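Hi C.,

You asked whether I'd gotten around to modeling the 191-residue construct. I have! Everything is below, sequence then structure, no commentary in between.
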Amino acid sequence: MDMPGKPRPVRLFESAIPSGNAYKVQLAASMLGLSLPSIELDILAQPSQTRTPEFLAKNPNGRIPVVELDDGTFLAESGAILFYLAEDTPMGSDDPLVRARTLQWMFFEQYSHEPYVAVLKFWTYWSGLANKRRDEIALWRARGQAALDVMNSHLQGASFFSGPRFGIADIALYAYTQGADDVGFSLAPPV
């Protein structure tokens, strides 16, 4: 896919263990026909490979994903990367209300969905904390289920989250929702 007028993404820095935030970027790039080679970093290493001076020069927040653009700049945060990729494509929108609803659902994903669904999955599969944090598991499960229920309620009257067609809000919410049932969340048919 050609990206006239803006630097093209050439590389994705992601985690060696599956990351829903990196998956969002990979999925959007794939759907847009962009080749985006990945560099996997060990976030569980002590110290994490995202805390090296070389990586912190790319993203001072020390988190993945980060996309390198062909002009040598770096863009962090999955939502910002998705917006960048979607601009001037069918996944984006010129309609101000659709763009605002896209942001609404992407903020929902980062503050009401991902902190509970993704964290519980991380604790269960990668960190071994699920057994050490039993007191928090019930709370995380209840809050994550509440977010999934909000998504289900919205999809009772809509096919997509932010507008009349598939967009980046759908990708953002899909990344951690797919597989949420693997860690005990209940997914209704629309979700």
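If it helps when you're writing up: The chain has two domains: 9-86, 96-183.

Thanks,
B.
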